[in-house]
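User: Round two. Same drill as before: sequence, then structure, for each protein.

Assistant: Same drill it is. First protein:
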Amino acid sequence: MEERIADFIAALRAAGVRISIAESEDAFRATDRLGMKERQVFQDALRTTLVKENQDRPTFDRMFPLYFGSGGPPLQDLAQDLTPEEREMLAQALRALLEQMRRQGQES
């Protein structure tokens, strides 16, 4: 998730929002402390730490869903907490499910 937040900050900067390194660090600290499970709290933490000027709010509001989805908790890499063996098991299960869906599609 840290990489996604860093990419979001870079995109805001590219769109003209002035964000200092200290403000970026504040954003990481705030989201780390407040968590990411409650979408509105997560969004408010980023907005509060990254947006200083009212004129930048629309840019933030337009870009936030592009990086963190439009509903529910922000996108998370659920596989990051899996062991390599668990990741392989998940990949195998997904491949098997995909193959099953392909076969069912051909039978229709």
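Second protein:
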Amino acid sequence: MESRFTGSINRVSCALLLAIFALNVYRAATQSITVPEAVTFDRWVRPPLRDILPQPYDPDNQVLNTLLIKRSVALFRLSEFSFRLPSVLGGGLYLWAAYRLSRRLLGAGPLFVAAVALMVLNPLILALAFFTWAFELLLAGNLNLAGICLGLSAAADLAFLWPAVALGTAFLLFTLATEPSRWIPVTERFLIPAVAAGFVFLAIPLSHAQAGSLMRTESLQRWLVPYSHWPQDTHARALVQALRRDAAGRHVEIGASPEFEPILGFYRARYRLANWEPMRQKPLTGNFDYYVLDRHDEALVSERHLQVIYRDSGLVLAR
């Protein structure tokens, strides 16, 4: 009876993980590009590596993720899915780590299912995947890989630098208190791979960091503004398709509200729309063939007697 119950618990957990992973794959392939993703493409993915390495360090540039996106886009051509593929795979890694860690700590009872659900029913990111795997590997005694995962966690998103430092420090202090004779070899096996893994990806960007940049690593605040634009982001691809149909075969210049210029730049590259003039951050006071306006600039429609071609969720396409 116990083994049958354990098997049922495992099947429920695996079904939950597979359903979440399938949903992530579907969303990555079908959802419009968002403002933060488009900015990442414009600033760090589209330019060649030799141009982005000398740039001043920006905490919004998640170095490891950026490099993986560049490789994914080069292999599979630019699309929403190829752009998000590293995050999707990182999400899968996190799901498996959450399963392993919960099973190790809680066995195969109801608490195990609850822990898995609490850990995986949240946004999945590459940095969190590596950070969670570091926990699992520390508990398994695999110090070399645990250190590498901790370093890669900080490299994937610098917001995880201080959590990684805190976890590593706590582990080394615990080892010093309980097994002082093993402290030096444990430190060598754990700390050197962690520093090396992080250094490989962060050395060049951090060498250009300005004073105070690291104090911004708690930069969850940077998502507050993009969150307010996500309803419009949802329909960005539909707007672009409407614009493609209307402007087919004509050379056009497009004016856009500032936060949506990166999205138009992404889709210009995505669909290879050479008939669109590159986005140049021109003010909307100029004359354009088409206007892409958010709710703050929507008054231009009546002021200039524009014809609305597409409208949805505070996003307007007019000419």
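The first strand starts at residue 254 and ends at 256.

User: Perfect.
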